[in-house]
Structure formats: C-alpha cells, structure tokens
Amino acid sequence: MSNIDVTSVLLNEQDGRIPSVNFITLGCAKNEVDSADMQRRLVSAGFAIVDDAEDADAVIVNTCSFIQAAIEESIDVILEVAGLANIADGSSKLIVAGCMPARFGDDLESELNEASAFVPCSKEDDIVEVVQRTLGVNPAPFARVDVESGPAAAYVKISDGCNRFCSFCSIPYIRGRYHSFPYERIRASVEQCIAEGSVEITLIGQDTGCWGSDFEEKSTTAQLLSNLAEEFPDTWFRIMYVEPDGITDELLDAIAAHDNVCDYLDMPLQHANPELLKSMRRKGSAPEFLKLLERIRTRVPGITLRTTLITGFPGETEEAFDELMEFLEEADFDYVGVFPYSREEGTRAYDLPDQVEEELKVARAQEVRDLCDAVGSVHTADRIGKELDVLVLGAEEDGQLFGRAMCQAPDVDGVVYVDGGEVGEIVRVTIVDTLAYDMEGEIIHG
Ligand code: SF4
C-alpha cells in the first residue's frame, strides 16, 4: 500500500500540535507493506507521518534480519538514527520494529538502550498504543482521512509466517507460523490501493501457494486470484513467491483464464541438486523441476518465469554446482535472483559440516548470474517488434517516462521506457529496443 498523504494531517485541529512519526523501512516488500499498514493506523489515530527523521517526535526503524548483511544494515541505521540530535537529546524517541525485535527479543532490548520501544512483527497492529505510550500523547483521531493518488503499483500481503523451516532460513522464527489473511481483509487492502490510484497489485507473503489451506473452510490461491481478478477487472494482479508444490494445475488455469492476472510466476527453487535440497529441508531435483517447468509452460503458454537460488550452501561440491548450472541452461528462466549462502545463527544449517568458503560462494553466485543474465537478456531481446501493454509508473529526472509490462515484476525485472502516456495509464507499445532487462517501447497510436 502507498504511503499516506501527509497533508491529510492538516484535518486534525485538536490543539495545533500534531505529534509526528518518521518511518525508515529496510528489507523486502513485505516490510514496506507492514510500514504502510502502521502508517495508516497512526494517521487514523491522529499522528502525522513526516519525511525527515529530524522533524519527527518518533522515528520508527522497521528492520530486516533475514540474513547477516541485513542485520548489519539494520544495526547501522538504528545507530545512525540514535545519533541524530533530536534522539540523542531525548526530545524525540527511537522505536525499533519488525524482524530484529522478532528474532532477537530481550537480547536486543538489553543491548540497544538508545531505543525507547521495540515492536516485533507480531505486535505491529499495536503500533498506535506503543507510540502513544512512548511519546505520552493521545492525539484526537481525524474526522476524515484523505489520501491522494498513490503509486500506480502496490503490494498487498495475503499471508504471513511460514511452516516450512528450510534449514537456512530464519523467517519461521521471525514471522511465526503460517497464517493466511482472510479474503475480506485482502479485498479491503486491494480496494484501498485502487482508491489510491493503483492499477497493478502484487500479492505477496512468505509462501503464497498455500493460501487458504489453514482456513476452517479451506480455499486456494487459485480461488483467491480468480475472485480478485473477477471483482476488479481493470486491475492487474500478480502473485509472487509460490513454492513449487503450490503450483497446482488449478493455479495455472486461474492465471491462464484471466487477462488481468499476469502470466508470470516467481518460484523459489534454491538449488537443483537433490542431496543439497534435502539438506536444505526442501524437496525436488533437476528432472522434477524440469517436468514442473514443462507443465507450467504447457498450461500457460508464453508465461514469464523467475526463480531464486542459493550458491555455496554447506556441502555444495563442484559436481553439485555443475548440476545446478546444467539445470539452469535447460530451464531457460526469464529472470533469476541468486544469493551466496548466508550462515544464520539459530537455523539448522548453521552447524552443518562442509561450509563453503565465502569467496567461493560469491564466485559461484556470479557464475550463475552471468549465465542467467545471458539467457534472460536474450529473452528480453526476443520481444523486439512485439506489442505489449505497459503500465506507466513515473518519469525519471530528465522526464523520460517508464513503466512495466506484465512480464516484469516490481523492483527486480527491469522497466519499459515509453514515449507517452500518463502515470497510472496502460498504454499499448511496440518494443523497439532492449538493453539487458530494460526495454524501449513506442506507443501504438490509433
Ligand atoms: S519457504 Fe521460504 S520463508 Fe519458508 S522457511 Fe523456506 S525459505 Fe524461509
């Protein structure tokens, strides 16, 4: 969801002094959605959201602790904020939210005296109470909250937590057990985003393919997508992070059946060697994944496919890595995200034998990237001469408009530069050129 329009706070006429909050959001899109939810709650409760931490009564750092690098970044940012004059002299308060308090609990509280409050992910719904208590204020709620047009594309979370406990991953410890959000809640979020100007909604969660499996009256991700696509026919929907066993024929048919559901799937595979996958506490093998890809491409011809991989997981031998590379050549993905294995304390893989040298993990990740970039940029170049719908998202500093086609997920797959259209408009273009994953499109007039 987009940020709340700060001007709406002018509606609060309680005493002319509106307590203000600044947000710094780190990590993934799921954190951005959480921050937007917290902002909405705070604005409704009478707080202003401001852009500058030095102007705020409270600064909320929404942290990420997924991997070591994210933890280090979160700590750097927290310490930077703690050093601001208004925080250091106690006139403003620092609140640490999100994954770090969820993962490190009391240990974090005892080590970070600079922070006045800690809000783990599971307690973010209580943010208003926490900020009120921390600042000692209780502003009057707004009689009306106006929102201006938000960005043309938005994320909506459909679930939280995860039950899989992959051996390298800290998410289940941070976010807790998997729980699907009820349809009505998702629908309300989608409606809100559309009211704010969104034309594309990307549905996210940790394990989106099992949505509805935990309801008393069970449902499926396919049903969710179909219902949303039919209720909001002018909005594009895209689903991210579907684990391989969540890619059912029903889901593929729902994608194929709706013109406003992007023919796009992002499926984290992590590796292709069966022994390593087993050690990751995951399932699959190169032949099984190739069969899955064939099934997907048969049921949804022309679908765009993305995956995520880890290199240098403990026990990854030269042979296992070669198997991954061979698989990737055959799999022919459009986009691949690859990360060197990060050894996370508290996860089962932390103590596994045969840890791989840091340099080798990074070098292997680069090898995967080089191969997949070569494959992916050819896929992109193949679009030259083709017609695509592009959702115009904004303009660069020099005025150059850009947007995204259905084959491009937000933030990861490049953009299409276009020669006209308004932000929030879907324009039909012919692709005339490409550079790596970016494309250039000319509007088809008449
Ligand atoms: S499925 Fe994803 S979020 Fe869940 S444990 Fe595995 S890697 Fe982590």
Automatic annotation (TrEMBL):
GO cellular component: cytosol
GO BP, sorted A to Z: tRNA methylthiolation
Keyword Protein biosynthesis appears in the UniProt entry: no
UniProt protein name: Ribosomal protein uS12 methylthiotransferase RimO
Domain TRAM: 381-445
Domain MTTase N-terminal as annotated: residue spans: 19-136
Main localization (coarse): cytoplasm
Membrane-spanning segments: none
Keywords attached to this entry: 4Fe-4S, Cytoplasm, Iron, Iron-sulfur, Metal-binding, S-adenosyl-L-methionine, Transferase
Residues the entry annotates as binding [4Fe-4S] cluster 2: C162, C166, C169
GO molecular function annotation: 4 iron, 4 sulfur cluster binding; aspartic acid methylthiotransferase activity; metal ion binding; protein methylthiotransferase activity
Signal sequence region: none
Record domain Radical SAM core: where: 148-378
Cofactor (UniProt): [4Fe-4S] cluster
Top-level taxon in the UniProt lineage: Bacteria
Phylogenetic lineage: Bacteria, Bacillati, Actinomycetota, Coriobacteriia, Eggerthellales
Annotated positions binding [4Fe-4S] cluster 1: C28, C64, C99
Top EC class of this enzyme: transferase
Localisation: Cytoplasm
Cofactor note: Binds 2 [4Fe-4S] clusters. One cluster is coordinated with 3 cysteines and an exchangeable S-adenosyl-L-methionine.
